[in-house]
């Protein structure tokens, strides 16, 4: 029985160490949360592609945009170090320490899928996706008002011309009537 005891203690010790190692390695992984996976925006609006990550080491964050026009790398940065923004997005992107980015003045070409990758220096990765829909502002109501205003202006211009003609005709008729009346009164 004495010989079994040291072997059992060694086995428990190894098992305990393996469990501790597994727990530590699981906690040193990368976690990524995307609180708003769908974003609706209108043209010329600013949008925030919000994420939050956590990891034990230094993380590298990379954002890519995929649409019907192709895939474009937007930005890549290492927390606390360099930021590499694509020339296409140079004046339109702001990066945040939590991994989020802000796109300013979005256009129709900005609609699509945004992929974020958080890579830890030990090799673990986390991935997230945000779908962005961009809509044009439709000025149907404004167009209707403009057409109605133009129509009413044209009708009022025609009515003013008609009233001017009626006024001139009335003055001519009054002159002729007064000439006839003065001619009749002279004969009497």
Tell me what the structure shows.
InterPro entries: CD2/SLAM_rcpt, Ig-like_dom_sf, Ig-like_fold, Ig_sub, Ig_V-set. Residues 1-29 form the signal peptide. Residues 36-135 form the Immunoglobulin domain. With 188 residues, the chain is α+β, with helices and mostly antiparallel strands. The protein folds into 2 domains: 28-135, Immunoglobulins (Immunoglobulin-like, Sandwich); 139-188. Helices cover 38% and strands 32% of the residues. The chain has helices spanning 4-27, 140-187; strands at 31-33, 38-42, 47-49, 52-54, 59-67, 70-78, 83-85, 93-95, 101-103, 112-120, 125-135. The strands form 3 sheets. Strands 2-11-10-5-6-7 form a 6-stranded mixed β-sheet, with no helix packed on it. It has a 3-stranded antiparallel β-sheet with strand order 3-9-8, with no helix packed on it. It has a two-stranded antiparallel ribbon with strand order 1-4. The longest helix has 48 residues, at 140-187. The termini are far apart.
By secondary-structure content and strand pairing, the structural class works out as: alpha+beta
What is the CATH third-level topology name of the largest domain? Immunoglobulin-like
Can you write the helix and strand succession as a string? HEEEEEEEEEEEH
Number of domains: 2
CATH architect. name of the largest domain:
Sandwich
Domain Immunoglobulin: 36-135
Organism: Serinus canaria
InterPro entries: CD2/SLAM_rcpt, Ig-like_dom_sf, Ig-like_fold, Ig_sub, Ig_V-set
Protein name: V-set and transmembrane domain containing 5
């Amino acid at each position: 029985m004495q010989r079994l005891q040291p072997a059992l203690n060694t086995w428990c010790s190894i098992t305990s160490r393996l469990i501790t190692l597994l727990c530590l390695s699981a906690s040193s992984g990368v976690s990524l949360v995307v609180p708003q996976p769908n974003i609706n925006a209108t043209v010329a609006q600013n949008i925030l592609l919000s994420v939050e990550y956590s990891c034990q080491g230094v993380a590298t964050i990379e954002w890519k945009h995929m649409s019907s026009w192709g895939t474009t790398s937007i930005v890549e940065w290492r927390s606390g170090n360099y930021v590499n923004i694509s020339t296409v997005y140079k004046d339109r992107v702001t990066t945040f320490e939590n991994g989020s980015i802000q796109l300013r003045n979005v256009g129709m070409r900005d609609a699509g899928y945004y992929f974020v990758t958080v890579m830890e220096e030990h090799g673990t990765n986390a991935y997230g996706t945000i779908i962005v829909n961009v809509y044009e502002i439709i000025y149907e109501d404004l167009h209707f008002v403009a057409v109605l205003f133009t129509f009413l202006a044209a009708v009022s211009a025609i009515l003013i011309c008609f009233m001017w003609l009626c006024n001139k005709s009335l003055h001519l008729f009054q002159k002729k009537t007064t000439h006839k009346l003065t001619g009749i009164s002279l004969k009497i």
